[in-house]
Write a structure and sequence with these properties.
The structure is a single chain. The chain has one domain: Beta-grasp domain (Ubiquitin-like (UB roll)), CATH 3.10.20. A hairpin with a 2-residue loop joins strand 4 and strand 5. The longest helix has 8 residues. It contains one helix and seven strands; from the N terminus they run βββαββββ. The chain is mainly β.
Length: 77
């Protein structure tokens, strides 16, 4: 069974945004770590992860219908 999520990748990660980012297909029960592999994003590149506007981690389970935002490390000075 396939369900869908909405994905937003920010800053330097935007290059990994899939064409179907508003309706990205997933298998229910996938974790963020597996999603990153599908997108070609390394775990080191994903510093902040949000699911439905709440902070998440690499082991957060996705069931479908979620909004996922992924931010890279950001430095400044």
């Amino acid at each position: 069974m396939t369900t869908y999520i909405s994905i937003r990748l920010f800053a330097t990660l935007s290059q990994f945004t899939p064409e179907s980012s508003d309706t990205y297909p997933i298998a229910p029960g996938i974790v963020i770590r597996e999603l990153l592999v599908q997108l070609g994003v390394s775990e080191d590149q994903a510093k902040l992860i949000f699911v439905n506007h709440l902070k998440a981690d690499l082991n957060t389970v996705l069931y479908g219908g979620e909004r996922v935002g992924i931010f890279p490390p950001i430095g400044g000075g």
